[in-house]
Specification:
Layout: H1 6-32, H2 40-61, E1 66-69, E2 82-90, H3 92-96, E3 103-110, E4 113-121, E5 126-131, E6 136-138, E7 141-143, E8 155-158, H4 168-178, E9 184-186, H5 191-199, E10 205-208, H6 213-225, E11 229-231, H7 239-242, E12 245-248, H8 253-261
Parallel strand pairs: 1-2, 8-9, 8-10
Antiparallel strand pairs: 2-3, 3-4, 4-5, 5-6, 6-7, 10-12, 11-12
Helix pairs in contact: 1-2, 5-6
């Protein structure tokens, strides 16, 4: 799209700036893999540095807006109706291991609703963009959710609990129901990209529990503006409040929701 809004232009500029910083650090991670200490502390610093860049860029352009980032204390803006919701490095574990699947996720919230979104994958130079009422885009190309209508032909994405998290039994039960009915499930470790890929029709659907607001804020708008449907894993729930999401195209949405909720 040739003409983005002023807010989207601000977000794209900030994402590119932070992306360059992260790419320099990502190249360095490969050298640190072989050391006994590993790249853990280095990656933590890279994450904080990226958030600092985003905060400075966004606050300079929009000094009255609030700022909610993963790595720092929330800043309340002079304009209480607008805030940035930022994950400077979604897919930290991938980044830490030298896996080229991670992203910068940025959303603008106005009166409790996400109105602008950018998910930037610096490794692939893929900028996913959405604005309320303006459709969803990948770089300069319009994107739409998958047109498939049969579950058995579809691929879904999710997150798998790690480190003994309490939702492991729920996820194992999800997989027991969904794997036999579909063409497969992928777990790539970055919810913002899972939602962006769903918006682009690469995945046919996505579900996950226990997400943070910055993991999904941008991705939710991308899916909606690409023609997809979204709900909470929990009946009468709200993804931004309960941290769970089910997203897919319209033809299989109800069927997908039934499988995940085990209705």
């Amino acid at each position: 799209m040739s003409q983005w809004s002023a807010n989207i232009n601000v977000m794209i500029k900030a994402a590119r700036y932070a992306g360059r910083s992260l790419m320099r650090d990502f190249k360095e991670v490969e050298n640190l893999q072989v050391s006994a200490k590993g790249p853990g502390d280095f990656v933590t610093r890279a994450d904080y540095k990226a958030e600092e860049i985003l905060r400075e860029e966004l606050m300079e352009a929009r000094p009255n807006y609030g700022f909610c980032g993963e790595e720092s204390k929330e800043i309340m803006g002079a304009d209480p109706t607008r805030r940035w919701i930022i994950d400077p490095l979604d897919g930290t574990t991938n980044f830490l291991h030298g896996l080229p699947h991670w992203a910068i996720s940025m959303a603008l919230e106005h009166k409790g609703e996400i109105v602008a979104a950018v998910v930037f994958n610096p490794v692939g130079e893929e900028m996913f963009i959405a604005e309320k009422g303006g459709g969803a885009w990948l770089n300069d190309k319009r994107i739409r959710v998958s047109g498939r209508k049969r579950l058995i032909e579809m691929i879904f994405a999710t997150g798998l609990p790690f480190g003994g998290r309490a939702d492991l039994p729920d996820t194992l039960q999800d997989l027991a129901r969904i794997l036999p009915a579909t063409a497969g499930v992928r777990r790539w470790g970055a919810a913002s990209l899972d939602l962006a890929f769903t918006a682009a029709g690469r995945y046919d659907g996505f579900w996950e529990r226990r997400l943070q607001v910055w993991d999904m804020a941008a991705g939710l708008l991308l899916v909606k503006e690409a023609g997809g449907l979204i709900t909470s894993v929990y009946k009468d729930g709200n993804p931004m409040e309960d941290g769970s999401v089910i997203a897919s195209n319209e033809p299989i949405f109800n069927q997908f929701v039934k499988i995940i909720r085990n209705d």
